[in-house]
Write a structure and sequence with these properties.
Rossmann fold, elongated, UDP-N-acetylmuramoyl-L-alanine:D-glutamate ligase, alpha/beta, binds ligand NPW, binds potassium ion, NAD(P)HX epimerase activity, lyase, YjeF_N_dom_sf, EC 4.2.1.136, Ribokinase-like
Length: 559
């Protein structure tokens, strides 16, 4: 974002002051759209340019007839924010930005949070921290504020690189501000989509402040993009159905010509008798994704389990590593899924022949558990690993640890009144426990931004193992070994979290790989199609419903 702003300003086409005016005007405009009747607003302005936007919002609301109260800081902001502050000061007062002053004010229709935006460097402290916690519900009024807070760029304290709050535990529970609406500028940032971002931002509005032509220049030239923001654009891509449509139509157009082998042959390795359901879901999804042929490969002894529909599915017994190696000698098999319902031992035995074949493949579920035990050797650029959080922690324990941040100590207070004070008694234990708790809180308070993010973790994992890593969750991150990454947010499709949903995702990606999509595109487009299928079905979804939604999803995309 900073690089875009600098490029725009260096071109002479726009000044920082104009960008700030557009940003503040956009926020005020969105407030007036949702609260058409002029009411009462409190605007909280921080020390930097986010605060500068706040002074612009105050001015615009005042001019529209709102009764506006501004709380600001007694500091010398940068020139643009200083000018906006001066312009506001000609219209109204600026009260000190403290929790006491904030609480003393009359209740308002809207509270504009313009304290910190992208420039947050450390955990909020003192009065500001108290005020943010109060807005987050520490005073018992959390719901009141959730309905009324409008955040400028983000709720203050949110790290826009990671979606975590600086100074708060990474899991929900602490009092952090939640907005009803967040107005971001130009593009969503990773922190709007990751971790707590979607939960605390409320409705996310991305306002156009006239930077598009500079963004587009960056989109096609990876080399000139600053490394830490690379993910933003592909993330935006994935959120953008048009981008997916063009990618998919390229793949699907091939359907107009050729025979079934032109569209690839996917092999889904299945597990022993009684465990075939997961692999059948995977196979069905690969078929619906348009792979020309799909073969399900259980051990011969379990073939009978798969006698039912779909009839389009081929079955072939695959016994052990040799069985797989023999089958993969057929070069017409263009992609393989290993893991769903496979059993850890069987998946472990299959890993070597599969990786040696260099076939594009999806490694999921039991294959990931086997991989964690075996080691990452032999993975290649055609592999897509699809771990959930727990599997990721088994594969990359150090990255998962870093992502989790400071962990609260386990507290176990032992009351032993009889021996209290004697050496080595639980009294020492209590003191040590309190010390551990104090250390934990200090570690949180000392946090510096940007925090290590899910995006960083997926990228580091992909670079380390040399394969595409799709780290599942409501915020799915897909990263390739060369650093390209995409974010797919399915926060608004909570019913996707259901048994077997991951098996279907593995099948969709395998189908796309079989059809020849590069692994990163197959994984990212797969995540998108998976969520679209769930969105189309709605609540009440079970994994079996997902593959049958795919034709409708393709139709909706105009394919
Ligand atoms: N650039 C543009 O063209 C446009 C930018 N726009 C807007 O600018 C925003 C970014 O502005 P920004 O870079 O000034 O950062 P911002 O979020 O206001 O905060 C930084 C200030 O807070 C301070 N600070 C940090 N942490 C702190 C803490 N814990 N406790 C206390 N202080 C702390 C930090 O000081 P320092 O770290 O140097 O001590 C610095 O003074 C962006 O989100 C968008 O709203 C729009 O107008 C569109 C055009
Ligand atoms: K803010």
């Amino acid at each position: 974002m900073r690089a875009l702003e600098s490029a725009a300003m260096a071109s002479g086409a726009v000044t920082g002051l104009e960008l700030m005016e557009r940003a503040g005007a956009a926020v005020a405009g969105h407030i007036r759209l949702r609260w058409p009747k002029a009411g009462r607003a409190t605007v909280l302005c921080g020390p930097g340019n986010n605060g500068g936007d706040g002074y612009v919002v105050a001015r615009h609301l005042h001019q529209a007839g709102w009764r506006v109260r501004v709380l600001g800081m007694d500091n010398t902001p940068g020139p643009d924010a200083a000018e906006m502050k001066r312009r506001w000061a000609e219209m109204g007062e600026i009260a000190p930005l403290t929790c006491g002053v904030f609480r003393a004010g009359a209740s308002c229709d809207v509270y504009v949070d313009a304290i910190f935006g992208t420039g947050l460097t450390r955990a909020p402290q003192g009065e500001i921290a108290k005020m943010l916690a109060y807005m987050g519900g520490s005073g018992g009024d959390g719901h009141f504020f959730r309905e009324r807070v409008v955040a400028v760029d983000c709720p203050s304290g949110l790290c826009l690189d990671s979606g975590a709050f600086l100074g708060a535990p990474r899991q929900p529970g602490e009092f952090v501000p939640h907005a009803r609406m967040t107005v971001a500028f130009d593009s969503p940032k990773p922190g709007h989509l990751l971790e707590r971002g979607p939960e605390v931002c409320g409705e996310l509005v991305v306002a156009d402040i006239g930077l598009r032509q500079w963004r587009e220049r960056y989109e096609n030239g990876r080399a000139v993009r600053p490394a830490r923001t690379v993910a933003v654009w592909p993330a935006h891509d994935v959120a953008d159905e048009r981008a997916n449509r063009s990618r998919l139509s390229a793949a699907c157009l091939a359907k107009h010509a050729g025979h079934k082998f032109t569209h690839g042959h996917a092999l889904i390795v299945a597990g022993g008798f009684g465990h075939g359901g997961a692999a059948r879901l995977t196979a069905r999804a690969a078929l619906r994704t348009g792979a020309g042929l799909v073969t399900l490969g259980p051990p011969k002894s379990a073939l009978i389990e798969h006698a039912g529909p779909p009839d389009a599915l081929m079955r072939r017994g695959v016994d052990g590593a040799e069985g797989l190696a023999t089958l993969l000698a057929d070069s017409r098999i263009t992609a393989v899924a290993l893991g769903p319902g496979c059993g850890v031992d069987r998946a472990g035995a299959m890993l070597d022949p599969l990786l040696a074949s260099k076939r594009p493949c999806v490694l999921d579920a039991d294959a990931l558990t086997a991989l964690a035990a075996r080691g990452l050797e032999g993975l290649h650029e055609g592999c897509v690993l699809t771990p959930h959080e727990g599997e990721f922690a088994r594969l990359f324990p150090d990255l998962a640890e870093r992502l989790a941040g400071p962990r609260p100590p386990r507290m176990m207070i032992v009351a032993d009144y009889g021996r209290r004070g004697a050496e080595g008694t639980p009294v020492d234990n209590i003191a040590a426990q309190w010390q551990a708790l104090a250390d934990y809180h200090r570690a949180l308070a000392d946090q510096r931004g940007p925090l290590y993010s899910k995006l960083d973790a997926a990228r580091d994992a992909a670079a380390r193992c040399g394969a595409v890593v799709l780290l599942k969750g409501p915020d799915t991150v897909i990263a390739a070994p060369d650093g390209q990454a995409r974010i797919h947010s399915a926060y608004y499709v909570p019913w996707l979290a259901t048994a077997g949903s991951g098996d279907v995702l593995a099948g969709i990606i395998t189908g796309l790989l079989a059809r020849g999509l590069p692994p990163l595109d197959a994984a990212a487009t797969g995540a998108f199609l998976h969520a679209q299928a769930a969105r189309r079905f709605g609540p009440g979804l079970i994994a079996d419903d997902l593959p049958d939604q795919l034709p409708g999803v393709f139709r909706d995309l105009g394919l």
